[in-house]
Design goal:
about 350 residues; alpha+beta; Nuclear Transport Factor 2, Chain: A; six-stranded mixed sheet; four-stranded antiparallel sheet; 7 helices; 19 strands; about 35% strand
Length: about 350
């Protein structure tokens, strides 16, 4: 009886080990810093926002200029935004129900997509422009976490957005205001990550843009690892935010702010640049912004109030009025909701 129990226990342990290993092999264990993720999100927003200019360019310029511009957009260099010429953009220009379209009609290589945009909505060869003065507008709605299929694959991030354009096509039909999602492949360039568009498709509201099983791990703070004190102490974007009990300075790197100590016997980076703003400390609290939301850190650099609030706020006698999802509430200096 005892022997059979021991054998069963050993078999179960092996089964548990194999199951756990199998589970772990299917997960992404790659990690990046919070500073990296914030920079990536910022660059992703900028890249998709700049598509407004590209749409307008292809709607107004000549075929020769369009070809030259497209070459710059897909060729390695400062102007590149698409990963290559095989990037797929889901077709906006169909007349039939999309479910009735063949895949070749539904999925357009980036060159074919912009050529069709120009042919249907752009200026005529004789210079006439029936949509003169009308502009493309892009509204970003959501940015995903940084994701990866596995440690062996490239990392990527997704941006949900909508494109609106009130011009009319030559056959009279309107531009389709369809919600879209761009998948951006991330490439390491020096100390930073640069995104390139690898596809643009219609957004499936049922699945959204998040896939938690593919989210890479985020290290919330790495103290003094990514950026060293000597790298930033003499940069122009640096400001005093507290003088007591130690001199604290906020520094800017790639449009994000970090925090350092600048004392004779203690010179180090406390917080890597992960905030879009760090304000002066008042009563051991600094108002900070992260990913467009507001919260607070203390003088150790620890986040004491998560960056979840819609608008900046300040404390009066230990209380602050905040907005969360359009709802007003009162919190104390530790972020606890109070009456």
């Amino acid at each position: 009886m005892f022997a059979s129990s021991r054998i069963f226990g050993s078999v179960f342990s092996i089964f548990l080990l194999l199951t756990t290993a199998s589970h772990l092999l299917g997960q992404t264990s790659r990690t990046i810093t919070k500073a990296d993720e914030n920079k990536i999100k910022q660059e992703a927003r900028k890249l998709i926002g700049n598509l407004e200019f590209e749409y307008d360019f292809f709607l107004t310029e000549t075929a020769l200029q369009r070809r030259s511009r497209l070459a710059a957009l897909i060729t390695p260099g400062a102007g590149r935004i698409f990963f290559n010429d095989k990037v797929i953009v889901e077709n906006d220009f169909y007349d039939a129900d999309i479910k009735d379209l063949e895949k070749s009609a539904r999925d357009k290589p980036v060159e074919d997509y912009f050529n069709e945009l120009s042919d249907k909505f752009g200026a005529h060869d004789n210079g006439d422009d029936p949509n003169q003065g009308k502009q493309v507008k892009i509204n970003l709605t959501k940015v995903s976490r940084v994701q990866a299929v596995s440690d062996a694959d490239s990392m990527y991030i997704k941006v949900a957005f909508e494109v609106t354009y009130d011009g009319k096509a030559r056959n009279g039909y309107a531009f389709k205001p369809v919600d879209r999602v761009a998948e951006l492949r991330l490439e390491r360039e020096g100390r930073n990550w640069r995104p390139y568009i690898s596809s643009i498709r219609f957004l499936d509201s049922a699945t959204g843009i998040e896939n938690r099983t593919r989210n890479v791990g985020i290290v919330e703070q790495i103290l003094g690892v990514d950026i060293k004190f000597a790298d930033v102490i003499n940069t122009p974007d640096i400001k005093n935010v507290s003088r007591s009990p130690v001199l604290l300075k906020a520094f800017n790197d790639n449009d994000l702010w970090g925090l350092l100590i600048d004392e004779d016997n203690d010179k180090r980076v406390l917080v890597q640049p992960i905030f879009c703003e760090i304000n002066e400390f008042i009563d051991n609290r600094s108002l900070v912004c992260q990913d467009g939301k507001w919260g607070c850190i203390d003088k150790s650099g620890r986040i004491v109030i998560d960056c979840i609030y819609d608008l900046p706020f300040s404390f009066v006698k230990g209380k602050a009025q905040v907005q969360l999802g359009g709802r007003a509430m009162t919190i104390d200096t530790n972020g606890k909701v109070s009456k």
